[in-house]
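Example 3.2
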Amino acid sequence: MKIVVLAGGLSPERDVSLSSGCLIANALLENGHKVLLLDLYKGLNFDNDFDELFLNSEIKRYQYSVPKHEPDLDKLMLEADNGKALIGKNVIKICRSADVVFLALHGSIGENGQLQAVFDSFGICYTGTGYIGSLLAMDKALSKELMRFNKLPTPDWKIFDLRKDYVDYILDGIGLPCVIKPCSCGSSIGVSIVKNENELSKAIEYAKKYENRLLIEKVIEGREFSVGILNGKALPVIEIIPNIGFYDYKNKYQPGLTKEICPAQISQRLTQKLQDQALKVHEILRLGDYSRIDFIVDDKDNVYCLEANTLPGMTPTSLLPQEANAIGLSYNELCEKIVSLALRRN
């Protein structure tokens, strides 16, 4: 089978995506497929028969490590020849020539539904969630409103738009401590935990690098868990314990900085509660073949959903592969399963 693994893109999560894409591409090559790892943003300047690209990929193995800090997208745009165009040269044509496109993208056009809508219009088969579910999950305000409407607990929040709201009122109704995050970013990019007013301006400056629309969220003290969903079933619960601080970009993607326990060492009752709520979130947000739902649990075992991920990371430190492994599904088997689900749906 010919498979394009689509990664990179003009996204703050670009490096994470490239790391995911390399591992996915290698796994699918080992599974016997013809694979091309393609950067959504850079595209490929190639005017010959696209089949040659897949044939040549048989001998390749890909490798990419996530740096400690987010990518410099301004520098990337200066170096590339397609400026602010979100889809690079020949990307659509190459994807149309494949049997399936494995979306290894994180953030921006890759997860907000835009690319999925484009692919639907061209009849391109792709993995993950469709454009509606992608939109609902990527916009944290929309997803939390849907959770609250469906009586699924989520921390109290407010939306703050730096283009029209007064910064003096940013904490009204939420107070301190609070979490400040861009409304539509992932991988904890732009996220800060604000404990006092002295930390507020720095947190706002960090978040607005990525978006003017911010989510101000009440801090829930507790333990952090995540639950993957695969083909309509909840995977084992995983607990996330950073060595220092919270589960930020560095702690997520630098090996050894966070302890992950799977299956989580919690009661069967709490396990079932987390899995049931994860499935409900997956359903109400109209998510696809797989997803990952993140939670905070307080000291009274009250469960609060933080957000949903439509294209969970597949890096060496990512959570979904660890959860799949806990039920005996290897990384290569997980990638194959995701491909087969996309083909069946298409």
